[in-house]
């Protein structure tokens, strides 16, 4: 069977080819009854627009790049942040007939590849996820004059709209919960210090300890479960008398719980534990994990809406979403 043409759609709808083209390309200068007639003809004939020809007319690709500054081993790992953010962004874009082009950028070579692809006009905009301090992409992409938004506040001084959650306030709430429970020697397993989330959550921890006349006890992980286990062993070696730990994400908290169990420490009797993110696994740790809910799905959806505002000239002020303390048995 021959592929239906735009001319056939126009003939079936009783309109000119130019009018049918305007409907297909989403222009609003067509009367509603004519638009309905063209849409019926499209449905009846099974017409599918030629994407290359359509792009020439509209100057749009209907594709958006989601650039993740991590290697594949991290993105496709047990950390649900990546899969949740990718799924949420994809669903938001799919609802308006746009698609996501997932690109990983964790090396100079991949940075150059991403920059070439985007400068080639293959996407209408870019969403950045999991940026690190030395990441050159935010500055490079802003010079290309392509619409760019960020999941999280950029770690470099660049004028890019962003959506974040209240990392400082969330950490403060978690550590305040430990202070109010009477814990005296409160340690933290901080996240990577080249990432804004890692920096801000450490800041929140230090704010509360400073105000409550307690000293900081810090180990640093990389947001993986193994790093949490290693950091917890380090903390126990440095201060065997610690009675609480605030962990900058739930995956590291899972590792910390494992190390505490292996060291014979009871949770929460000997050491209380608070995490951050409220991943699904937090409900099923032993004991269930007290944590801060990080609204990943809502944050990714808000990032898409912010990018659409950029397309349409709408407001692009930073968006900060609240976190919520979820109290379970670990603290």
TrEMBL record:
Residues 4-58 form the HTH lacI-type domain. InterPro entries: HTH_LacI, LacI/GalR-like_sensor, Lambda_DNA-bd_dom_sf, Peripla_BP_I. GO terms for molecular function: DNA-binding transcription factor activity; transcription cis-regulatory region binding. SUPFAM superfamilies: lambda repressor-like DNA-binding domains, Periplasmic binding protein-like I. Keywords: DNA-binding, Transcription, Transcription regulation. The keyword DNA-binding applies. PANTHER family: HTH-TYPE TRANSCRIPTIONAL REGULATOR GALS, LACI-RELATED TRANSCRIPTIONAL REPRESSOR. This is LacI family transcriptional regulator. It comes from Nonomuraea fuscirosea.
